[in-house]
Amino acid sequence: MKSFVLLAIFIFLPILFFSYYEVYDYFFMKPNTYFEYNSNSNGEFGIEFYSINKYPIMDSNKLLESVWSQPRTLIGGQMVVESSNYTHAISSSKAMGLLQLKNPTGVDLHVYNLFDPYDNLKGALEYHGYLRRLFDDERLQIIAYHDGPTAVMAGKVSPGGEAYYEKVKRAQQNYSNSKIYSPYFIGGRVFYFPEGEEDRINTDFEAGLAYRKFEIYGNVGLELPLKQIQESDFTNIKTDYGYTFLYVPRTNFGFGIEGKTVPDDVVFRIGLPWQNFILKGPENPELIYKHELTDNWTTKILINADTLLLSSYFSIYNLDLFMGYEIYQTSINLGFRLAF
Hints:
Elements: H1 2-17, E1 32-40, E2 45-59, H2 60-64, H3 72-83, H4 103-108, H5 117-135, H6 138-147, H7 149-153, H8 159-173, E3 179-193, E4 200-211, E5 214-225, H9 226-230, E6 238-250, E7 253-259, E8 263-272, E9 275-282, E10 286-292, E11 297-304, E12 308-316, E13 319-326, E14 331-339
Antiparallel strand pairs: 1-2, 1-14, 2-3, 3-4, 4-5, 5-6, 6-7, 7-8, 8-9, 9-10, 10-11, 11-12, 12-13, 13-14
Helix pairs in contact: 3-8, 5-6, 6-8
């Protein structure tokens, strides 16, 4: 019986309830299921599962009701080509949202939040209008959306641009009303902390969703002394829970509150998904800074009352390798994350 309980805690709980990475990054990861393992030189280790998925927020025809300057079927088809109707799509070139606008273009067009479908659509329509005035030719207009107007004005139409035009026109012909999707996640983790007779296991289960300019996160946690688990004694289990609400008026800025029953902290996220600061306080002050140096290498710093962690992530296909040094505990942290 004791062996079965331990097996359930270490294996079945994380599989059933999943796990979390850095929750403020979840909505900007590719929808997938992830497994993560972390450990340090002090003997602590944890396993995590989390799943990032899509849910429908509206019909594409409803969104396209605001389109008057371009054929609605053209824009509807282009959304399918660019993002498969997914509001939080991010390309390898850092184009974002339903119609894949880059941040400098969004700033020039006064787009507030590229992950809000209405804001992204507004920016794309203004960009199409500019390109139509520039070329007065639908083919060149669509190619310039892909290749950039400077290249097309110079007469440098790429094979990729021609293929993009053909793909968009086919999607326009085949357009029909479909769903627009945004992300949600469910996850959980199990961590083991060796503390002599007070060895304990912590579990956390989290979920969240994004809707236009709002992000909602929630979590429930359990602290289980290992000795009580071995004795099948579950009468004195500590529980924890919390929530975070973020309002994101700009692509690179969001703010909100975090707490349990009443808010304890104010939260700020400053920057783009691949380079940003997370600031919290005053009750539980914390600073997280993440910087994606290349497509395969990201650095991260986490500072709070108990932790000063310097770390890096190296990405190889669907595998991320994690390495860090925790200064307060003088421990080396190693781990990996696998997407499947």
